[in-house]
Amino acid sequence: MIDQQSVTLDLAEAKAKVGEFVDQGLVPGAVLAWGIRDEPIHYHTVGTLGFGKAEPVDEQSIFRIFSQTKPIAGIAAMMLIEEGALALDQPIGDILPAFAAMRVMEGDDPEVTRPAARPITVRHLLTHTAGFGMAGMSLNALYMRDGVAPAIRRRVAGPGELPNPASLAEFCERLARLPLAADPGTRFDYSVATDVLGLVIEAASGIPFDTFLQRRLFDPLAMVDTSFAVPPEKVARFTDLPEKKGGIWTLADDPADSLYARPVYPAGGGGLVSTAHDYARFATMLLREGELDGARVLKPETVRLARSNLLPEAVTHVDLPIGQTLSGIGFGAAMSISLEPGRKTGGQFDWPGDVPAGVFGWPGAAGTACWIDPERRFFLLYLAQYWPSWLNGAMRPELIAAAYRDLARI
């Protein structure tokens, strides 16, 4: 246990590990950020914005954070819960009437349905227990048919399929017409729930979802480069998204012609871009229980609620759609919580391995991750870019294990 005195945490082993990742050609560049107790945020940067590029990465480099968007949306919802504009167990049909009378598939036939046993609540959206699926995962064929695929920015609709929705409201309208895969509150199903949460936040606050995030989170926390789009003047700082096909690196997303430069609508499930500077400030605010540099965005008790296990009582484990169960893991405000010391399972989402109980956060599909440890008042942020998401599966577990070995030495 770290004592109350100020300490300097160098993270020498973790920094060396990041250097190995770049030297081995696993990623073109990476940024590590960390903080402990009330020390300033520390940064370590290695490599470049892309393979074959000369421009180095730094704490101002812009990364696609994909599902690390989810905790930001979750915290936005907690702000409204704190104010009484939302309630944790409030049916979302009170706010979005299209979701008031959902139906559930019986078996595998989407035409055979029954009424849902209970309404979808805000809690269900925060914990992926609403019964939704995700394109490419559960309910895939049904979602693709109706174009319910928010992460695919330029998807070309196939025969009999609808094109992508033109707005967040249209996305939710289509989703509400489809059956659920399970009754709300009965199982964890990683899903588009956080995208729906964005529209709930919009309706409850009376302002667009992206505007809410800007006014209530990004501006107070000086997160100057976090947004759902990359303006032309910032493209020079935008990282490549390299994709490995047949052992050869290509570009899954080119900063010069990026899908993230012109999003169709703000996707709370995975649409943000950010920097190490910005996301480290978000993590530090959570570590300091809602306040940073004199700006308080949440009460301490609200942060503690957000990082507690909010899973419905009937949901006892977290199964990921790739066939992996995360042992000893609960779910809070759109982020996982370690309920017991991490155990290595060898899976690509084994990021809680080698961490103690109480650590919370969530990774992104293109290589990013953030871990926050309230007991030790420590956070670790890692930003890199690669595609597909299952590439480099050992990278994040190795990094967090190295960081905790560093932490044990002080």
Descriptive terms for the model:
410 residues, alpha+beta, Beta-lactamase, 2 domains, 10 helices
How many DSSP-defined strands?
17
What is the CATH C level class of the largest domain, in words?
Answer: Alpha Beta
Distance between the termini: 9 Å
For the record, the CATH architecture of the largest domain stands as 3-Layer(aba) Sandwich
Number of helices: 10
Number of domains: 2
From the 3D structure, determine the CATH topology of the largest domain: Beta-lactamase
Describe this structure in words.
Helix 1 (12-23) runs antiparallel to helix 10 (395-408) and helix 2 (69-83) packs parallel to helix 6 (193-205). It contains 10 helices and 17 strands. The protein has helices at 12-23, 69-83, 122-126, 140-145, 168-177, 193-205, 209-218, 276-287, 300-306, 395-408, and strands at 29-36, 42-47, 63-64, 103-106, 109-115, 241-245, 248-253, 273-274, 291-292, 295-296, 318-319, 325-326, 329-331, 336-338, 360-361, 369-373, 378-383. The strands form 6 sheets. It has a 7-stranded antiparallel sheet with strand order 2-1-17-16-15-14-13, sandwiched between helices. It is globular and about 55 Å long. The termini are close together. The longest helix has 15 residues, at 69-83. Strand 9 (291-292) and strand 10 (295-296) form a beta hairpin. The protein folds into 2 domains: 12-68 and 224-408, DD-peptidase/beta-lactamase superfamily (Beta-lactamase), CATH 3.40.710; 81-205, Beta-lactamase (3-Layer(aba) Sandwich), CATH 3.40.710.10. With 410 residues, the protein is α+β, with helices and mostly antiparallel strands.
